[in-house]
User: Which sequence fits this backbone?
């Protein structure tokens, strides 16, 4: 692989998103297209909670091994975005995600306990946390670049769910209100960092592979959901069983 210009590297990263981001997954199309049952939506929200809850742990591990105070200062905002600042019951993304699961009729204590989690979800999310802890800082930051593509999937998800499910309200989906500007700010910083610091062909290949890996994490989470809950469904022992199943 030859050394790419920063612009060529960005184009390759965006190509990965166009091809591999979970916006293309059949389960996402079911979700925003109104084809999911309430049980499938509940299972999606319950399992996605684990991803949301582990994001600040992932980010804290990145900060802990970062020597650059400018990067640490920038990355700290991600912790408060997800954990909140303790200013209210709906402060932070994790609390707002629990508001979503509340609105879908799931018991909050059950969701937070992780007892109903799919094994595939746990393995995928844990793999992402370990990746960020163990790879280079450049690769760890590059793996966050799925946020480049999240505003589009969020707009599709919110519009589709509000239009197609009578058990979903705008208040239920309030988690997503703040995410597009947060994701743009975070991805702008990460993309600039990667373009400036991937200085060799090896660096650039590692950056591209990191984004491919992260896309695979998100894709495999939806694979696990589809296998377990889309008819006929194969729910593994111990995982969430919707009412009536």
Assistant:
């Amino acid at each position: 692989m030859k050394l790419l210009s920063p612009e060529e590297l960005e184009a390759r990263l965006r190509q990965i998103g166009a091809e591999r981001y979970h916006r293309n997954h059949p389960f996402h199309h079911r979700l925003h297209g109104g084809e999911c049952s309430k049980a499938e939506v509940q299972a999606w929200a319950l399992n996605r909670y684990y991803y949301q809850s582990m994001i600040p742990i992932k980010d804290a591990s990145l900060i802990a091994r970062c020597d650059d105070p400018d990067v640490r200062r920038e990355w700290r905002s991600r912790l408060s975005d997800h954990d909140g600042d303790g200013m209210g019951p709906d402060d932070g993304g994790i609390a707002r995600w629990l508001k979503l699961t509340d609105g879908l009729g799931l018991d909050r204590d059950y969701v937070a306990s992780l007892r109903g989690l799919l094994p595939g979800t746990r393995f995928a999310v844990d793999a992402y946390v370990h990746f960020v802890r163990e790879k280079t800082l450049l690769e760890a930051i590059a793996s966050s670049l799925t946020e480049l593509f999240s505003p589009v999937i969020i707009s599709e998800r919110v519009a589709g769910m509000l239009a197609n499910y009578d058990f979903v309200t705008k208040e239920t989906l309030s988690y997503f209100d703040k995410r597009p500007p947060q994701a743009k700010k975070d991805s702008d910083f990460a993309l600039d960092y990667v373009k400036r610091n991937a200085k060799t062909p090896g660096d650039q290949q590692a950056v591209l592979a990191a984004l491919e890996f992260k896309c695979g994490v998100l894709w495999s989470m939806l694979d696990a959901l589809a296998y377990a809950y889309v008819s006929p469904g194969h729910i593994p022992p111990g995982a969430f069983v919707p009412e009536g199943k």
